[in-house]
Design brief:
alpha+beta
């Protein structure tokens, strides 16, 4: 028997206690997995789970991934009304992070071009922050994701929200204007949003 490790996280707090969410996940997993860890901090919360794979599912990474995704879809449905919209997950060994609600029925997957744009903005943002702060930025880009045609950049740090909002707006209206608007227009994005510690702080249309 093998296992797939999955890491759930969200910025900001859930609408119910994290321990209650862990109980819900344990009920869904039953004998097919378990919660292996969890935590809450200033910028958000996380729950780590392990999904057991057996038989055909353990024979290949593809089968194991499909088996895990079925359980994750049930978990996503159960947590949908309790966790923030930015709740996401990643699978051990996979560099990608995905919105948990991508697993819900009716969700329309964004294009690969939009996903690449989100990753590019995240990397560019981190480089710009490091260059402007002697390698010690006051906040960093945690991840980039896409919701519909809106590219969302998640920032984390310890500045007050008002100060982070002003810094990001100044950056976005200055040297980075073409980095945001022009490339995103080319790949069909309609807007770029920056969220700081789970709080939306600026939205910039690309048209």
């Amino acid at each position: 028997m093998g296992a797939v490790d999955v890491f759930l996280s969200w910025l900001g707090g859930a609408r119910v206690p994290r321990l209650d969410l862990e109980d819900t996940i344990e009920e869904i997993l039953g004998s097919r997995g378990e919660v292996t860890g969890g935590g809450s901090g200033e910028i958000g919360e996380h729950i780590d789970i392990e999904i057991f794979t057996a038989g055909a599912a353990a024979a290949s990474p593809e089968a194991a991934g499909a088996d895990a995704e079925g359980l994750l879809a049930r978990i996503a449905a159960a947590l949908a009304g309790a966790v923030p919209a930015n709740a996401s997950y990643c699978v051990a060994g996979d560099d990608g992070r995905h919105l948990l609600r991508e697993l819900l029925p009716g969700y329309e997957q964004p294009s690969e071009q939009l996903r690449a744009a989100a990753d590019g903005i995240c990397a560019g943002f981190d480089q710009a922050l490091k260059a402007a702060s002697d390698g010690h930025p006051p906040f960093a880009c945690h991840s980039g994701m896409v919701d519909g045609t809106t590219v969302i950049t998640h920032l984390v740090g310890r500045l007050a929200v008002a100060e982070a909002r002003e810094r990001v707006r100044t950056w976005a209206d200055g040297a980075a204007t073409t980095l945001i608007r022009q490339p995103l227009n080319l790949v069909g994005a309609t807007a770029w949003e920056a969220h700081y510690n789970g709080v939306p702080i600026v939205r910039i249309p690309t048209t």
